[in-house]
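Assess this:
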Amino acid sequence: MLLNTARLPAFLLMSLFAFPVLADDEDTAAICAEAEERYVDMFGHPSADEDGVTVVKMFKYKFCPENLSVPVGTTVRWVNVDKRTSHSVILKEEGVPESDRLFPEENFEFTFLTAGPTQNYLCGPHWETQKMIGMITVTH
């Protein structure tokens, strides 16, 4: 098979843009897997086993999961599973003031009472510098 060199630059250009996205997804998946391991080490059970709440872990300047969809009435618990870094939670669209700084093993909870469009949740000290931003959709 002959290589069409006229198409090679376009292929290389597309590859440069495609692979960083894949790498970022893989990095996030690895970070979130490590966050879950830390959660289990801290609390003795998987985050999915928490009764009555949906857990979002905060670890290495990421929210895990970054994208969340929950029904109305769901309580979301953000838990800091980092070793030394403090985080906070901001829910601008809900009109909720920034939470206190959450140090390792501390958490913040909020119950979503109305459905609506996708909205961001942010880490106060890290959303601008580290892009620590998550998204939640509350459904009927």
